[in-house]
Amino acid sequence: VTEVLRCAPADCCAWCPAVVPDVSCFFEITWAKWNSSKSRLIVKGNGTPGETVELRHAVTGAFVGTKRVKDDGTWKITVNGLSTVPCSVEAVSGSASVAEAVRRAPSDCS
Q: Which of 41, 64, 91, 105 is most buried per CB count within 10 Å?
């Protein structure tokens, strides 16, 4: 289940398409997946353009990676060769945070 955090500022959706006036600005993880054949974690989401997203292990809080949200409102963090694969990840941007289970995480994930 993806958790979605709605933004509080009225102007947070300046980047949303004008053709969809009722779209709310949000910060979310849309996809989190482990690729065992490449030892790679890929996490994608949406957020406010220009903001920094920090990815953490949801249980331990250990830092996993960081990326800036692109102008189109999307972000993607790819991490290779993790020694411990998280069962779930947490993305943090400003005061917003969301968590997501990692699809295809190995049975010994933590």
A: 91
